[in-house]
């Protein structure tokens, strides 16, 4: 974590022009959470424009934060990329990345996969009872990973998520719809995590989807802009949604019965849109034009996209990479 953080910072500031607005918003939260002084999780949410967004964007953190590993983020990484062999699996596991299946690539994907449950537990308070089945978890029935949430030091953790779940490159940096895994993190974590929205622009020029040879090399000399919003208690932002969720859980008696419940599904849709709205505020504050299509926040709007790995979206003309 420390080595990659230092390398990311060196690349950003030595070879590019970096503008960060609101860095103190994030650093203030991290300072309060140092040395285990935390009573709730931290959820940061950001748009996704480049395959190098994570770890590059964490290069904005001063080096003293990069060596405080227990106070660094847990992320969600594509199982088919980050965990495709033993070397990658070890590297990204040490990098506090959770193996995540994407439905486009795997039937094990979706918001009810074991990895999302791990992320909910990382954000939540430590459990007083650890069952033998809690020590490891499997994402597909054949692999096995140590459950980071069994360690009390990992609870009330910082989890970062890119809810668009794929690289989305558009000249106006428009947003896709946000997938509903982020809704689970907000609705089911106990207590409600602290919430910090982020917006990035410029990393798409470091690794543009239409880049030519040498495709594997990042481009330098780019202008990178990062906007970090003010921290907020998720209860204050999304409290009425959490109250509605708890009411549904009490009514059903079992959260598993709510996987396909119409009210629960609509609640997840509403929460994902509310999170997207917070990121949208940052986008607009950076001078980008408002969405022309008000339905861009809905999954149905994007269902007309082709079943391909890479394509130009018929919705907004953006370059999309599902790798």
From TrEMBL:
Major location (coarse): mitochondrion
Gene Ontology CC annotation, any one: mitochondrial outer membrane
UniProt region (Disordered), positions on chain: 301-323
Pfam families in the cross-refs: Acyltransferase
Coiled coil feature spans: none
Membrane-related topology note: Peripheral membrane protein
Catalytic activity: 1'-[1,2-diacyl-sn-glycero-3-phospho],3'-[1-acyl-sn-glycero-3-phospho]-glycerol + a 1,2-diacyl-sn-glycero-3-phosphocholine = a cardiolipin + a 1-acyl-sn-glycero-3-phosphocholine
The keyword ATP-binding is annotated on this UniProt entry: no
MF annotations from Gene Ontology: 1-acylglycerophosphocholine O-acyltransferase activity
CDD domains the record matches: LPLAT_AGPAT-like
Stretches assigned to the Phospholipid/glycerol acyltransferase domain: 42-203
InterPro entries linked to this entry: Plipid/glycerol_acylTrfase, Tafazzin
UniProt keyword Transferase, yes or no: yes
UniProt keyword terms in alphabetical order: Acyltransferase, Lipid metabolism, Membrane, Mitochondrion, Mitochondrion inner membrane, Mitochondrion outer membrane, Transferase
Subcellular compartments: Mitochondrion inner membrane; Mitochondrion outer membrane
GO biological process, one term: ATP synthesis coupled electron transport
Entry-linked SUPFAM superfamilies: Glycerol-3-phosphate (1)-acyltransferase (SSF69593)
Family: Belongs to the taffazin family.
Name of the protein in question: Tafazzin family protein
Organism whose genome encodes this protein: Hypocrea atroviridis (strain ATCC 20476 / IMI 206040)
